[in-house]
């Protein structure tokens, strides 16, 4: 009886069936026992009866609703109403009712809202994992898989358990943006795993970065990472800052600048700043020079680039002899005239 009550005991549409049976059972026990009803039980019953009056309006609207979208809209309002009570049992019961209502035509948005509530309010990793497992089975999409991977990590699932789900998750990618988001979630998960194990071998992370670039390029063509090139930028930043492979990062940035971002002053600034802080000053100087001749989207930024280049040139000159300084000054003068 308790298990049945736990499953549907708070559903206003069908809970009466199980409660009537349960109450008859309890009355039989009560009649055979000595003593009076507990005041606590009486108060709980009265509160429940009052609560029933509050939710009657929602139940009437659900009864009158004809199509699925209308029912889901009412159920979302119902959930918001229940959230005001801050009773996790009632809220979870309403979410379960919503996903059951849309079972024939699964709605990813409902599952996502359910998962967000579990992650932010209930905060029981194992419960989240169980719900996400059902969610990706009924309504597979990259957003749900991202949250599923995060829930698995929080629940201390084994590496094998998490990694075994990756091929299925990857198969749900339908757009470049979805690919970027899903790969980023999984790659950062791998990075945290390596860091947690006190290791410095990020080979598995680098391998996944390479896999993502190849997979997305093959699936979506040459513009898979356009227009912001965020995937390759993340990869280059990781190479610069974590694994200390500036040469490889430099090649990625050269590819970014040559494949659609070369006219953007902000892209040149980003590449040059990475070289200044994590690469070599001389390479940063070269990037500033190239930026002055290539950037065309914002003239004021080009002036700023020119000034940055001058400052960097000045710092470099401090370490050169007089002949080298003369050569650098002449070079700068020629470029300034251009």
From TrEMBL:
<dbReference type="GO" id="GO:0008380">
    <property type="term" value="P:RNA splicing"/>
</dbReference>
<keyword id="KW-0508">mRNA splicing</keyword>
<keyword id="KW-0472">Membrane</keyword>
<dbReference type="GO" id="GO:0006397">
    <property type="term" value="P:mRNA processing"/>
</dbReference>
<protein>
    <submittedName>
        <fullName>TPR_REGION domain-containing protein</fullName>
    </submittedName>
</protein>
<dbReference type="InterPro" id="IPR011990">
    <property type="entry name" value="TPR-like_helical_dom_sf"/>
</dbReference>
<dbReference type="InterPro" id="IPR059164">
    <property type="entry name" value="HAT_PRP39_C"/>
</dbReference>
<dbReference type="GO" id="GO:0005634">
    <property type="term" value="C:nucleus"/>
</dbReference>
<keyword id="KW-0677">Repeat</keyword>
<keyword id="KW-0539">Nucleus</keyword>
<keyword id="KW-0812">Transmembrane</keyword>
<dbReference type="Pfam" id="PF23241">
    <property type="entry name" value="HAT_PRP39_C"/>
</dbReference>
<keyword id="KW-0507">mRNA processing</keyword>
<feature type="transmembrane region" description="Helical">
    <location>
        <begin position="300"/>
        <end position="318"/>
    </location>
</feature>
<keyword id="KW-1133">Transmembrane helix</keyword>
